[in-house]
C-alpha cells in the first residue's frame, strides 16, 4: 500500500525517506521521495554557465549556494506541508552533468575553474587518445581535458592530487569519499565491462605516454574509485551535514549511494537500463543512451561508449546544443507579445508555438537553422554561432520556422543515431524521452520519433527528471533484496503499473526529417563560415 497523506509525517520523522539532488545545466533540483518512489517535497535553484576567458564554467560559490538553496527549499516545503523539521533521511544520492574537468591539490583547492562538458577546446587531445586507445575519446571527457592541459603545458598539472566530476566533487565534499558511480566514471576514462572498472591496458598506455613528463602521479592515483549501483559509497559526515543544511538540523551518518551522471539518472528515471531500450534526455544539450546487445564493429567519433549505473554497455550520442536557441527565439516572441500589451505565461507560449510546428511542411519548408551556442563535436565545429538562413524560394511562415528549429535541436543527434541504426544495425524496441520539451504533449515525441525512426514514449515520472532518478538509485541501495538487480528493482518496485504514452514514427514526418537533415549537412559549411568570420 502506498504512502498516503496521513502517514507521510511519520515517514519523514522516522527517516524512511530518500533524497536525490541533481546539478543540471540550468537548474539544481532536490527531490525527497518515500519508499514507494513517490515525491514528498522538492526544491530548486536556477543557474547558468558562464563563458569566462573562453571557458564554459560554473563557479564554486554558485555550486555550494545552489546545493544549499535546493535543499533548503525542499526542507521548507516539508515544514509548511507537514509541520515537521527534517532531521534525518534514509539515504541520499547526488548527480550532476557528466564529464568536464575538476582537479584539486592535496589541500582540496580547485586548481582551475571547473571546465564543463560544454567546452570543445580539447580536440587535439581527444584525437591523440582515440588513436592511442583505439577507443573513441570525446572532447568533453575528463581524460581529454587532462591530456589537453598536458599538451598546453599548464602549470597546475604537477599539483594534481584528485580529478573528478561535479557529482564526484559534491560526494567527496559531503562524505570525504573519493568514489564515483560507474556510469559517471565511464565519462572520465574508458571502462572495461568485464571487470566493471577502468580499463587497465588503457591506463598503462596513458601512463607510458606520460612517462617523460615528470608529473608525480599516475592516472590511477588521481581518478575516483568506481562503484556500481546498489553499493554503499559512504556516509554524510558532520561537516557535510552542516554544508548541506545551513540550519544544521540534519544529522550526520546518513548512507549515500554512488554519485552518478545525468545520463545514468535519466536512464533510471525512464526505466531504460535493459538491452534494446534507450532514452533521450532533452535540455541545454541532448543525448540518447541505447543499451547494446553486442559491441560496435568500429570506432566512431560521433558515438561514446559508456555504461548504465549497473555497468551494462551503452552507446551514447551526445550533442552539445539543443534547447538554448529555441528558448531564445521563444523569449523574443514573448518580448513582442509583452510590447503589444499581451503578457503570455511561459507554459502557454511553449504550447502555442510548439503546436504551431504541427501545421508546417513536413521538411520545414526549406528553412535551415543551427542552434549552436557552443561547438558541436558530432559535426566537427569547435565553436558555435546560432544561425538561421533561408533561400528566397523557402516557404517562410511561423509553422515552418518552429518546425525547423525543433528539427535543428535534434539535427546533430540524428547524425549519430543514423550511424547506430543504419550502419551498425542496432535494434531498438522503444525509447523513453524526458525533459522540459515534453511538457507540451505530442509535439516533442513526434519530432524525436521522426528523427530516430523508433517508437518514443513519455512516462509521467519522466517529468521528475534526474533528481528523482538519483533518489531511485539511493533507494535501490537502501531497499533492494540481497540479490535483486537494478532492472528487477525498477520493474517491480518503481515502474510497476506505470504506462508510458507511446507515439510511433509517422512515415511522412520521417521522410521530412530526412530531407531536412540532408539540407542540414550541406549547410554546415555556412555555420563554419559564421564561426570563422563572426567574432564572439
UniProtKB/TrEMBL annotation:
<feature type="domain" description="Carbohydrate kinase FGGY C-terminal">
    <location>
        <begin position="279"/>
        <end position="476"/>
    </location>
</feature>
<protein>
    <submittedName>
        <fullName>Xylulokinase</fullName>
        <ecNumber>2.7.1.17</ecNumber>
    </submittedName>
</protein>
<keyword id="KW-0808">Transferase</keyword>
<dbReference type="InterPro" id="IPR018484">
    <property type="entry name" value="FGGY_N"/>
</dbReference>
<feature type="domain" description="Carbohydrate kinase FGGY N-terminal">
    <location>
        <begin position="18"/>
        <end position="241"/>
    </location>
</feature>
<dbReference type="GO" id="GO:0004856">
    <property type="term" value="F:D-xylulokinase activity"/>
</dbReference>
<dbReference type="InterPro" id="IPR018485">
    <property type="entry name" value="FGGY_C"/>
</dbReference>
<dbReference type="Pfam" id="PF02782">
    <property type="entry name" value="FGGY_C"/>
</dbReference>
<dbReference type="InterPro" id="IPR043129">
    <property type="entry name" value="ATPase_NBD"/>
</dbReference>
<keyword id="KW-0418">Kinase</keyword>
<comment type="similarity">
    <text>Belongs to the FGGY kinase family.</text>
</comment>
<dbReference type="Pfam" id="PF00370">
    <property type="entry name" value="FGGY_N"/>
</dbReference>
<dbReference type="InterPro" id="IPR050406">
    <property type="entry name" value="FGGY_Carb_Kinase"/>
</dbReference>
Amino acid at each position: 500500500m502506498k504512502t498516503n497523506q496521513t502517514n507521510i509525517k511519520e515517514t519523514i520523522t522516522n527517516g524512511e525517506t530518500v533524497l536525490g539532488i541533481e546539478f543540471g545545466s540550468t537548474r539544481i533540483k532536490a527531490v525527497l521521495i518515500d519508499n514507494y518512489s513517490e515525491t514528498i517535497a522538492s526544491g530548486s535553484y536556477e543557474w547558468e554557465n558562464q563563458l569566462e576567458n573562453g571557458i564554459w564554467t560554473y563557479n564554486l560559490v554558485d555550486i555550494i549556494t545552489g546545493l544549499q538553496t535546493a535543499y533548503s527549499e525542499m526542507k521548507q516545503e516539508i515544514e509548511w506541508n507537514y509541520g515537521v523539521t527534517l532531521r534525518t533521511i534514509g539515504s541520499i544520492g547526488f548527480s550532476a552533468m557528466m564529464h568536464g574537468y575538476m582537479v584539486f591539490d592535496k589541500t582540496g583547492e580547485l586548481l582551475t575553474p571547473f571546465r564543463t562538458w560544454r567546452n570543445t577546446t580539447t580536440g587535439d587531445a581527444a584525437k591523440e587518445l582515440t588513436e592511442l586507445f583505439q577507443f573513441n575519446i570525446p572532447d568533453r571527457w575528463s581524460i581529454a581535458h587532462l591530456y589537453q592541459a598536458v599538451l598546453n603545458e599548464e602549470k597546475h598539472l604537477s599539483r594534481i592530487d584528485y580529478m573528478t566530476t561535479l557529482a564526484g566533487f559534491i560526494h567527496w565534499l559531503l562524505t570525504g569519499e573519493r568514489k564515483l558511480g560507474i556510469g559517471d566514471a565511464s565519462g572520465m576514462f574508458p571502462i572495461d565491462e568485464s571487470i566493471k572498472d577502468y580499463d587497465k591496458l588503457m591506463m598503462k598506455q596513458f601512463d607510458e605516454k606520460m612517462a617523460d613528463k615528470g608529473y608525480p602521479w599516475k592516472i590511477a592515483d588521481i581518478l575516483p574509485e568506481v562503484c556500481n549501483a546498489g553499493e554503499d559509497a559512504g556516509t554524510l559526515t558532520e561537516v557535510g551535514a552542516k554544508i548541506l543544511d545551513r540550519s544544521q538540523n540534519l544529522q550526520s551518518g546518513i548512507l549515500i549511494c554512488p554519485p552518478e551522471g545525468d545520463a545514468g539518472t535519466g536512464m533510471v528515471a525512464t526505466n531504460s537500463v535493459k538491452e534494446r531500450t534507450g532514452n533521450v534526455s532533452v535540455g541545454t544539450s541532448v543525448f540518447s543512451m541505447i543499451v547494446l546487445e553486442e559491441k560496435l564493429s568500429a570506432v566512431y567519433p560521433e558515438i561514446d561508449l559508456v555504461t548504465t549505473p549497473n555497468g551494462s554497455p551503452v552507446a551514447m550520442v551526445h550533442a552539445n546544443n539543443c534547447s538554448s536557441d529555441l528558448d531564445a527565439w521563444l523569449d523574443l516572441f514573448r518580448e513582442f507579445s509583452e510590447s503589444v500589451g499581451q503578457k503570455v505565461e511561459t507554459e502557454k507560449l511553449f504550447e502555442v508555438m510548439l503546436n504551431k510546428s504541427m501545421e508546417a511542411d513536413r521538411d520545414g519548408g526549406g528553412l535551415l537553422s543551427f542552434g549552436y551556442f557552443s561547438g558541436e563535436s558530432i559535426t566537427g565545429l569547435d565553436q558555435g554561432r546560432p544561425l538561421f538562413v533561408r533561400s528566397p524560394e523557402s516557404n517562410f511562415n511561423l509553422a515552418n520556422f518552429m518546425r525547423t528549429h525543433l528539427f535543428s535541436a535534434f539535427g546533430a543527434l540524428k547524425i549519430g543515431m543514423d550511424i547506430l541504426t543504419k550502419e551498425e544495425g542496432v535494434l531498438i524496441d522503444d525509447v523513453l524521452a524526458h525533459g522540459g520539451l515534453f511538457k507540451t504533449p505530442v509535439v516533442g515525441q513526434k519530432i524525436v520519433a521522426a528523427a530516430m525512426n523508433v517508437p518514443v514514449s513519455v512516462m509521467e515520472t519522466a517529468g521528475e527528471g534526474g533528481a528523482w532518478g538519483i533518489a531511485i538509485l539511493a533507494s535501490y541501495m537502501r531497499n533492494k533484496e540481497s540479490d535483486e538487480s537494478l532492472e528487477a528493482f525498477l520493474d517491480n518496485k518503481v515502474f510497476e503499473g506505470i504506462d508510458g504514452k507511446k507515439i510511433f514514427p509517422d512515415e511522412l514526418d520521417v521522410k521530412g526529417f530526412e530531407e531536412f537533415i540532408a539540407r542540414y549537412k550541406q549547410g554546415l559549411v555556412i555555420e563554419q563560415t559564421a564561426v570563422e568570420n563572426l567574432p564572439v
